[in-house]
Amino acid sequence: MKQVLQVEDMSVTFELHQSEVHAVREMNFSLAQGETLAVVGESGSGKSQAFLAIMGLLAKNGRAEGRAMMGDINLIGMEPKQLDKHRGKDIAMIFQDPMTSLNPTLKIKTQLSEVLVKHRGFEQSQAVKSATEMLERVGIPEPAKRANAYPHELSGGMRQRVMIAMALLCQPKILIADEPTTALDVTVQAQMLDLFKTLTEDFGTALVLITHDLGVVAGVADRMMVMYGGRAVEKGTTDDLFYDPRHPYTLGLLHSTPHIAKRAERLDPIQGLPPSLEHLPKGCSFNPRCAFAFDRCLVERPPLAPTGNGREKACHYEGPMAYGKVA
Question: Residues 161, 162, 166, 167: what is their CA dihedral angle, to the nearest 10 degrees?
Fold first, then answer.
């Protein structure tokens, strides 16, 4: 498949008063047309900051280094005016809370049509017509009526669909969805994930799904990248990581996720808390919480290295995992 994004040695650093915080280190991954990549990990693992860097949306005290190649264009370090030519048109992002992303004073049709007028040169009437058609495409009932509504007049699920419609109007090559189902109830979550799957198939859009919830990954993502402490610690196909996790952190995430086939009375949470990015532990960042840690883990940071069959992990431990298969 055609590669639409190639990220190489990307890092994200924030300047604080007397120090620097490395939010993302040494990130490398590729994304193919029509593919869905799930980026998973607890809050603070660097997931969102990595993709805000690619979009050029870091806070003022943040800086990104490395390469994020979209064709022959490096998005990292690009001037905002140049980035504006690609944001929305070639690469788009859906944020966690649509209420903070939509302008509460403008009707839905106004906000959606603006994208087409700016990026595709549509006349206003033509843009409104196309926007209404896209609302119908993403499953919003009575799209003409909803197009005339204000954001507060729609449910959370409908607002999220509006954001997806807005992102897809210019048929971008890459769509980044940052925790898109967190604020939705379980039924709407399932509908949203089905919608994502349909859209990648219909439009050929490459989807990045950023989430801390492994429950939303199965059946949607082709590949997974697990992040911890600002680094990728395991990569592989979704089936490989679900059925045969090679990193203790991936295993911990799977066992702390509710599963309909598991009749256990209690979940098995990962002990301890995620590390502060200002004060990462020496050696492997996961070693204070890892049941498999040994002496080497306390002093030597494991590199992300291939393990065969397209898989990678950053872990010194090579023995069997105590829990066995989990899915």
Answer: -30
